[in-house]
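Morning - magnesium ion inputs below, output right after.
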Amino acid sequence: MKLPSILNLMTDDLAVDLGTSRTRVFARGRGIVVNEPSLLAYDAPSREVVAVGLEALELEGRASEDIQIISPLQDGVVADSTYAGKLLEHYIRKARDRRSSISRRVLISIAADATDIEHYALRYAAKEASVGNVHFINKGLVTILGSGVAPEDQRATMVVDIGAGTTTIAAMVHNHLIFTRTLRVGGNDMDIALINMIKQNHNLLVGPRTAERVKNRTRLRRSARPGTDHHGQGTQHHRRQSRNGRRQQHRNPRSS
Ligand SMILES: Nc1ncnc2c1ncn2[C@@H]1O[C@H](COP(=O)(O)OP(=O)(O)OP(=O)(O)O)[C@@H](O)[C@H]1O
Ligand SMILES: [Mg+2]
């Protein structure tokens, strides 16, 4: 057996999307092997991690006061390197199949305009997770490729990915990424806006999980209305008339 194939048996190549709300890990040849909440529960006095991901989510509202449940990522950025490292370590271990105990290369998606500090925080987190070689990939490119756009497509394509903490906009034409931007705003901000609106209009206090459920259900209800496709995605777009500045509404012909 040649050396590379022995290496392939003992190590693996992973790609990680460390998202504000969910972490996904892709393993070469096996597809997405982890898709879990980016949550971690730790015991405050000892700072020991007690649960990660789904198990941490299940502890919400049930654990003792000493247990803190946190997301080490805020607005798509590592807010706590130590716990982000522990989260990454847990998911990388989970993603490794029984044969491999080393990850030769790990690819991590990161915003194109990420600061040096953000790069450092992710590298630190990966180091905590005992990863040999860390490579970064532009989140915009991942957004385009993940949406199924063929790189060689002659048409210009723009994709908008609204995550929990960030919104990534990317445009590609004929193998060239012509535009990419990550805004630090996403679904979590919609949840906060809903909490504030419900408080203001109904004098009711709801938590972020309830607000998220309301938001997600609202989307489903809208899907039953004409003008939206069966995935509930709006198929209308607006543009300002160039001459008088008035807004025009357009329906995507493919949706009717
Ligand atoms: N049916 C739905 N309707 C509206 N929003 C939804 C629906 N399902 C999930 N979401 C929202 O999508 C967001 C999660 O998206 P995603 O998993 O892509 O985020 P992420 O990758 O963890 O975050 P980021 O990329 O910003 O770091 C959450 O805010 C969630 O409430
Ligand atoms: Mg994301």
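Note: Residues 17, 19, 163 surround magnesium ion (ligand 2) (CB under 6 Å).

O.
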